[in-house]
Write a structure and sequence with these properties.
The chain is an alpha+beta fold. It folds into two domains: 32-246 and 297-408, Alkaline Phosphatase, subunit A; 496-591, no CATH class. The chain has helices spanning 52-57, 75-84, 88-91, 102-108, 116-122, 184-201, 228-234, 280-313, 346-349, 374-382, 400-409, 500-514, 520-523, 526-529, 538-541, 547-551, and strands spanning 32-38, 63-69, 126-132, 152-156, 166-171, 177-180, 206-211, 218-219, 237-238, 320-326, 353-356, 363-370, 413-418, 430-431, 437-438, 446-453, 456-463, 468-472, 494-495, 498-499, 576-579, 588-591. The strands form six sheets. It has a ten-stranded mixed beta sheet, with helices on both faces. Helix 6 runs parallel beside helix 8 (280-313). It starts with 31 loop residues before the first strand and ends with a strand.
């Protein structure tokens, strides 16, 4: 039996609506939104199972979306996607460090004038935020400019963001204040409760985000200057630090030993297939690291209950949506990897999303959702008129009717992408099969697709080295067997009774759209390839009438060069192919998205 001790809370809140005059203290009837956003929380190592208060207060009263994904498995790009509703290839915030990412890049791209809190304020919501916003948001640049759109805020700032016992917070327009010696999540909880009270007293519907940095690794301190290469050499991440009251918990718990835990044979592509098997010493350290993450989440669990009980005491719980999610997933020992994220494997991209609120049914949902869908969801709840232009997602179905319709109508794909290098966390570096030890991985840039249909469950990726991966997660949930053919002599594998050789052109063509999609085409990519509208899924595209069309497709996703950021000139072909009805199955036309 698993131990269920501890409390982890991550509030993820967003709301929007029409412009309005000041209203009475009881609000205008629109729902409040609370978002609890953790940092680096896994789904596939069962961290949620060790959060009994989250279960009691949110899971047991709402829907757990089991196929929820981040599109970029690293914090700053994922968070910018969450708060702008745009994929990283449309924000061009692709790293945690400048020049390719971080808060300065967010500002330089113009998003401080065009993002969710401003849209919600225009809709008549009061907006509040506490905790981690973006990387490279620091004690030096906190007011140059100050993040726009928040009625009241209390931000956790670099270089102390990831120091559990040395947090610096910055409230509204006041200078940063150090909380050395105090436990970061506990400090955050006090600030969250204060902002929640402000929201209750505002006389408006409110949107509140609570963003603890748990269970992220401890970093003393996080580098904020210099080149990305210099930062990668400087940064050292160690196991997270729990509150003193939780350090005794889970003494015998270990990383789940599933099929891809430190496998006998290397898998994957590029540098991952060169990793050496983890030693017993490393595995023991990784188990300790895993327990520290679970212990760290207990203060979050307590925070979750604290938020819910205060909503209940205020008499507004029944009219408040609570979203619990994280920015990206995490791996420890899977695929021979030391602690970290940034890969395209399920451990890194499939993340928790749990929603409680008005009309939300109790149970689990298998519909496909992504971080790009959250901003549209908040805007829809708020009835907002502004902010919809250019969004790359669609609202998450929140009631029984919407969930039932989604089974037949909702998109089945997620765009996945990454640029730059991978950073090993903990005291051990990457050990390669030739005996070489490296501080950080080679270039980790890739474009990928997750496609989840009624009878198929696929991951397809193209690396910047132009290596390919294809996994059938129905038969290979650990993603150990790359079935992408490397030679014509290999025996043909079939999926849905279709040879992989016929499946791949469909996936290539779909990936060509999603890698550069904008707005509606990100939600309906098949409409670009089949503008007549009669193909909406991979299953539909597998119809035999399209065989000659897809067989004639020559352009596919490839890279000219491995870069550390999104450099369009190195991204390879950008045009999708289009099937035109009535002109023959083998007639192609190139068209810009």
């Amino acid at each position: 039996m698993k131990l269920f001790l501890g409390l982890v809370t991550v509030l993820v809140t967003a709301i929007s609506g029409r412009r309005q005059q000041p209203i009475a203290p009881n609000g205008d009837g629109r729902a409040n939104i609370v978002v609890i956003l953790t940092d680096d929380q896994d789904l596939h190592m069962d961290s949620v199972d060790y959060m009994p208060l989250l279960k009691k207060q949110v899971i047991d009263h709402g829907t757990f979306y089991k196929h929820h994904y981040c599109s970029t498995a690293i914090c700053c790009p994922s968070r910018v996607t969450l708060w702008t509703g745009r994929n990283a290839h449309n924000t061009n915030v692709t790293d945690v460090f400048p020049p390719y990412g971080g808060y300065p890049k967010f500002v330089a791209q113009g998003f401080n004038r065009n993002w969710l809190p401003l849209w919600l304020q225009a809709a008549g919501y009061s907006t509040y935020y506490t905790g981690k916003l973006f990387n490279a948001h620091t004690i030096e640049n906190w007011n140059s400019p100050h993040p726009a759109g928040w009625t009241s805020s209390d931000f956790l700032l670099d270089p102390h963001t990831y120091q559990y016992l040395n947090a610096s917070f910055q409230r509204n327009q006041y200078p940063p204040v150090s909380h050395e010696g105090q436990y970061s999540t506990d400090v955050l909880a006090g600030k969250a409760y204060g902002l929640l009270e402000e929201g209750v007293q505002s006389g408006k519907p409110f949107f509140l985000t609570v963003a603890p940095m748990a269970p992220h690794s401890n970093v003393d301190p996080f580098p904020v200057t210099g080149t990305p290469e210099a930062a990668l050499k400087e940064i050292r991440m160690t196991a997270p630090i729990s509150a003193e009251r939780h350090k005794h918990l889970f003494p015998d718990v270990k990383v789940p030993r599933r099929s891809n835990f430190n496998p006998e044979k290397p898998g994957g592509a590029s540098w991952i297939k060169r990793l050496a098997k983890l030693t017993d010493e490393v595995i023991e350290y990784n188990d300790d690291f895993y327990r520290a993450r679970l212990q760290t989440l207990q203060a979050v669990d307590e925070l979750v209950e604290g938020v819910v009980t205060r909503l209940e005491d205020a008499g507004i719980l029944h009219n408040t949506y609570i979203f619990y999610t994280t920015d990206n997933g995490y791996h420890i020992s899977q695929h021979r990897l030391n602690p970290g994220k940034e890969c395209g494997f399920e451990e890194d991209i499939n993340i928790p999303l749990i929603v409680r609120g008005p009309g939300v049914p109790v149970g689990e949902s298998q519909v496909v959702t992504a971080q790009t869908d959250l901003a549209p969801t908040f805007l829809k709840i708020a009835g907002a008129k502004w902010g919809w232009d250019g969004l790359d997602g669609s609202p998450v179905p929140l009631n029984k009717k919407q969930l039932e319709n989604a089974k037949k109508e909702r998109q089945e794909h997620v765009n996945v992408e990454f640029w730059g290098r991978i950073i090993p966390e903990g005291k051990h570096r990457f050990s390669l099969d030739d005996g070489k030890i490296v501080d950080y991985g080679p270039n980790n840039t890739y474009k990928a697709l997750r496609v989840v249909g009624p009878k198929y469950n696929l991951y397809y990726s193209v690396w910047c080295t132009n290596e390919h991966e294809l996994y059938d997660l129905t038969t290979d949930p650990g993603q150990l067997n790359n079935i992408y053919p490397t030679s014509s002599s290999e025996s043909e594998i079939t999926i849905l009774g279709v040879p992989v050789s016929k499946l791949l052109p469909r996936l290539d063509t779909l990936l060509m759209v999603t890698k550069s999609c904008k707005g509606r085409t990100c939600v309906q990519p098949w409409s670009v390839i089949h503008p007549a509208g009669n193909v909406k899924t991979l299953h539909g595209a597998l119809n035999k009438r399209y065989d000659s069309f897809y067989a004639s497709v020559s352009a596919s996703v490839s890279f000219e060069k491995c870069e550390l950021g999104y450099i369009l000139e190195s991204e390879g072909p950008q045009e999708a192919v289009v099937f035109h009805e009535g002109l023959g199955n083998d007639w192609l036309a190139n068209g810009e998205l």
